[in-house]
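WARN  no MSA supplied for this record, continuing single-sequence
INFO  ligand: S-adenosylmethionine
INFO  echoing inputs
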Amino acid sequence: MLSYQHGYHAGGFADVHKHAALCLLLAHLGRKPAPFCMIDSHAGRGLYDLTGEQAGRTGEWQAGIARLIESAPTDESLQPYLDVVAGFNKAGGDLVTYPGSPSIAARMMGAADRLLLIEAHPAEHAALRGVFRRDRRVHIHKRDSFEALPGLIPPAERRGLALIDPSYEIKAEYRSVPVMVGSALRRWPTGIFAIWYPLLPDDRHGPLVAGLDALARPVLIAELTGPAGSPAPGPANSPANGPAIRQGLRGTGLAVINPPWRFDESLAAAGAAIARCLFGANGNHTVRVTGDRP
Ligand SMILES: C[S@@+](CC[C@H](N)C(=O)[O-])C[C@H]1O[C@@H](n2cnc3c(N)ncnc32)[C@H](O)[C@@H]1O
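INFO  complex generated
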C-alpha cells in the first residue's frame, strides 16, 4: 500500500536538482531529428498546485523553486528548466503551478516522441490520466514499476531516457532498484538511465550507489547538499509525507548511466548555481564518475 504523495515535496530542492538535470537530458535528446522515448517509472500526478493543501503544509517549494526564481540566475545550464516552469505559469504572475517530470517531458518533447508513464498509486494515477487525456504521445500504466518496466524496454525508438524516481518508502528499494536497472540496461544498453535517491543522515543510499557501480559501466553521480536538516521540516509525521524519507534529508542525489557527451559539465554548472541560489555558503554540489573501468 503506497502512502507517499509527491504533492508535499513538489518544487522542493530535490525536485529542482532532479528536474534541472532532466531538462538538460531532454534538451540533448531533442537536438537530433530522430524520435526518442522517455519512460518515467515513478511518474507521480504530473502537475502540482502550489496553492493547494499539500504544498502549503510543507512549504518546500518556497525554499526550492520559488527561491531559485527569486535569485534570477542567468546560468545557461538552468535556462531550459526555468523556461519550462515559467511556461506553466502566467507571465509576471505568482508561481502557482509546478510541473512534475511527466509534464516537463511532455513540454520538451516533439510531436513524434513518446512518453511512457508508470504510476501505481490510485489517486496519483487518476490525476495523471487527467493531465494527459488529450496527449496521444503519452501512454500511462497503472502498475508496479518493478513488474511493468521490463515489458516496456527497449522502446521501439531505441533513443531515449528512463527516469527512475522511487519514493523509497520500502527500504529494500535501495537494493532492488539497482537490480531493476541492471536488467533494464541489459535489454537497452544504449538507453540513458537517471536514478534519483535521497541523502539521509544514515547514508542508506550506500547500497544503491554500490549496486549501480557494480553494473560495470561509468555512472555519473551528482549530489546536492544543503544545511543539515533541510528542507524545513513541516508536518513530517503525516504518513503521506513520507516521514522515513524526508526527516533530516540532508541532500539529493542523481545517478546517470550513459550520460550524453559533456552532460557532466552542464550538470556541474547547473548544480553549482542551484547550490548557490538555494543554500548560499552552506550549499555544495559535486559531480563524479564511479565504476569507470578500462
Ligand atoms: C517521487 S514520486 C515521483 C515524482 C515524479 N517522478 C516527478 O519528478 O515529478 C514517486 C511516485 O512513485 C509512485 N510509486 C512508488 N512505488 C511505486 C511502484 N512500485 N510502482 C509504481 N509507482 C510507484 C508513488 O506513488 C509516487 O507517486
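Confidence is low (pLDDT under 50) at residues 232-245.
INFO  checksum written, moving to next record
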